Amino acid sequence: MGTSDQTQRNLEFDVVGLDLDGTLYPVGSEINNIIREEMCRRLSEVIGVTAEYTRKLFETHYAQIGSGSKTIATIAENHGHKIDAVELAQRSLEEADILEFINPNPELREMLERLRGRYQIDLVTGSGRVLTSQKLERLGIPKDIFGHVLCKEDGNKLDGSIYQRWLGLRSVSPERVLYVGDGIKRDIRPCRDLGIKTCYVKGESDESDYWVNRILELEGLLL
Ligand SMILES: [Mg+2]
For a tag on the chain, would you pick the N or C end, based on fewer CB atoms within 10 A? Predict the structure, then answer.
């Protein structure tokens, strides 16, 4: 847990926003496997071959390349397409059917209850509205713990429109707002561009204002 500048510690926030996928629950190997299936399905639509064949291509290339998103980018390029593979991987995570691998997290629920005593807390996710409700249910987190729940239908993360909408709903200046997420491109950078303070949840990062190793450490930073 820390800040990118350890001497600066000015945690005066009114609103704390949280990402869902990869932030409120971890993405393990079973989930990764389903996401790969989903990535290959999406890639197959781009390059115009079957999903099964794409999956075979993926396994062959992955063995040499060792990175899922680089593998996707390479296969696309070999078929004459240039795609943003990191974005494709993120979208696959947010939309793949991974509900059965999400487990209740009472500790997280209790932490959110305590945070709510001091901050207004919101959920801002790239997942669709229906899937968001289902994932929260699996986690054992009541939706009404959040003041606002913004989903894919409310705007885009990459272009920042969902965060702009969120700021509009809260009508508070961006530096009084903290957003917590696991994605540099989808969470940290677009928020930073709007002046929102950021916390990265997957360990040390130069790009965010603060960082923690896991979501349950957030309390140590904020309370
Ligand atoms: Mg995420």
Answer: C
Pick the CATH number of 2-25+102-222 from 3.90.550.10, 3.40.50.970, 3.30.70.260, 3.40.50.1000: 3.40.50.1000
Per residue in 23-82, pLDDT tens? 999 988 899 889 899 999 999 999 999 999 999 999 999 999 988 889 999 999 999 999
Q: Ligand 1: distance of its center to the CA of 212 in Å?
A: 14
CA of 194 to the centre of ligand 1 (A): 18
For ion ligand 1, residues whose CB falls within 5 Å: 19, 21-22, 182-183
Q: How far is CA 159 from CA 100, 186, 190, 200, in A?
A: 31, 8, 7, 19
The CA distance from 112 to 216, in Å, is 9
Where are the domains positioned within the chain? Answer: 2-25+102-222, 29-99
Tell me the sheet residues that pair with 198: 179
The pLDDT tens digits for 95-143 are 888 999 999 999 999 999 999 999 999 999 999 999 999 999 999 999 9
Q: What's the 8 CA to ligand 1 centre distance in angstroms?
A: 26
pTM of structure: 0.84
Residue written as tokens 């500048």? 5
